[in-house]
Amino acid sequence: MKVCILGAGTMGAGIAQVFAVNGHEVVLRDIKDEFVERGMGHIDSGLARLVKKEKMTADEKAAIMSRITGTVDLALIKDCDLVVEAAVERMDLKKKIFAELDEACDAKTILASNTSSLSITEIASATKRPDKVIGMHFFNPAPVMKLVEIIKGIATSEETFNTVKSITAEIGKDGVAVEEAPGFVVNRILVPMINEAVGILADGVASAEDIDLAMKLGANHPIGPLALGDLIGLDVCYLIMEVLYDEFGDPKYRPHPYLRKMVRGNKLGRKTGEGFFKY
Ligand SMILES: CC(=O)CC(=O)SCCNC(=O)CCNC(=O)[C@H](O)C(C)(C)COP(=O)(O)OP(=O)(O)OC[C@H]1O[C@@H](n2cnc3c(N)ncnc32)[C@H](O)[C@@H]1OP(=O)(O)O
Ligand SMILES: NC(=O)C1=CN([C@@H]2O[C@H](COP(=O)(O)OP(=O)(O)OC[C@H]3O[C@@H](n4cnc5c(N)ncnc54)[C@H](O)[C@@H]3O)[C@@H](O)[C@H]2O)C=CC1
């Protein structure tokens, strides 16, 4: 199968790796060469770690890398069977991208979005093939996390859903069917928890280290909520809270002003070298 991933950031690079590891030909497309190179670099270093741990041979790594073409050229995606869009979490941008994809791709191509929270129905409305538009929501880090939420929009066909469910299983992930709703299942629970941790920090209840230690030892989470915010990207967390707040109109989803301040200060977490912790 030929798969195109749009966006070579935190998620796009990881998703490209997953498909290439499972033998698929991948086109990884971003808007600037430097972003493509950064994404390819992340995949290379992720696989290098596996070689070092003797979980993969250097030859296997080379074969996986050879299946991924990094590019800024949208023309390369024409004959893809599946596109997974992993660009920025903004509806205006996603609609623009899906309108472009609709023009650029063959009629057979399924157009999936890795959106964390947005309406698949609205994204699909930018295309003439809403039956072939679907949510395919991977989790960070994509090569490690087993879950994919599969989200149908109002017009998504059963055929598209079943194809994406089979692909999900084939790449070694567990898919769950989710009805369209802001934040789907996981993020409606997880991201407000991160937002609450930001509030606890802003109130001076405990230090960032102690908030995270408390949740690791007291709730058995693998990493604390502030470190998780840094892993996801605080800009992404903020955008998800905004979607929850706008869509539900419920003040319990209000993004914390301190989260907004961190984003304004470009302290976005791992991807900028500093968030609630330094990297
Ligand atoms: C915002 C959204 O829309 C949705 C979201 O994604 S929400 C975020 C969801 N993610 C989470 O909740 C993650 C929570 N954190 C964790 O589970 C863990 O901290 C973690 C899995 C990320 C890292 O675990 P860790 O034990 O500290 O790290 P590490 O030992 O380096 O890696 C764990 C395993 O993953 C593998 N791994 C790590 N990075 C990898 C990569 N890029 N490629 C392949 N494998 C990788 C390692 O080889 C290791 O495998 P083994 O255990 O077999 O040796
Ligand atoms: N960060 C996370 O933990 C998770 C994020 N997501 C979702 O995945 C999507 C991407 O998030 P991240 O990877 O974190 O963002 P990111 O900011 O790390 O990367 C986004 C990339 O998309 C690129 N891009 C922008 N416009 C583009 C276009 N027209 N064509 C191709 N590429 C374009 C940007 O240049 C950037 O490299 C968002 O919708 C986000 O909500 C989903 C699961 C987890």
UniProtKB/TrEMBL annotation:
<dbReference type="InterPro" id="IPR006180">
    <property type="entry name" value="3-OHacyl-CoA_DH_CS"/>
</dbReference>
<dbReference type="InterPro" id="IPR036291">
    <property type="entry name" value="NAD(P)-bd_dom_sf"/>
</dbReference>
<comment type="pathway">
    <text>Lipid metabolism; butanoate metabolism.</text>
</comment>
<feature type="domain" description="3-hydroxyacyl-CoA dehydrogenase NAD binding">
    <location>
        <begin position="2"/>
        <end position="180"/>
    </location>
</feature>
<dbReference type="InterPro" id="IPR013328">
    <property type="entry name" value="6PGD_dom2"/>
</dbReference>
<dbReference type="GO" id="GO:0008691">
    <property type="term" value="F:3-hydroxybutyryl-CoA dehydrogenase activity"/>
</dbReference>
<comment type="similarity">
    <text>Belongs to the 3-hydroxyacyl-CoA dehydrogenase family.</text>
</comment>
<dbReference type="InterPro" id="IPR006108">
    <property type="entry name" value="3HC_DH_C"/>
</dbReference>
<dbReference type="InterPro" id="IPR006176">
    <property type="entry name" value="3-OHacyl-CoA_DH_NAD-bd"/>
</dbReference>
<feature type="domain" description="3-hydroxyacyl-CoA dehydrogenase C-terminal">
    <location>
        <begin position="183"/>
        <end position="279"/>
    </location>
</feature>
<protein>
    <submittedName>
        <fullName>3-hydroxybutyryl-CoA dehydrogenase</fullName>
        <ecNumber>1.1.1.157</ecNumber>
    </submittedName>
</protein>
<dbReference type="Pfam" id="PF00725">
    <property type="entry name" value="3HCDH"/>
</dbReference>
<keyword id="KW-0560">Oxidoreductase</keyword>
<dbReference type="Pfam" id="PF02737">
    <property type="entry name" value="3HCDH_N"/>
</dbReference>
<dbReference type="InterPro" id="IPR008927">
    <property type="entry name" value="6-PGluconate_DH-like_C_sf"/>
</dbReference>
<dbReference type="InterPro" id="IPR022694">
    <property type="entry name" value="3-OHacyl-CoA_DH"/>
</dbReference>
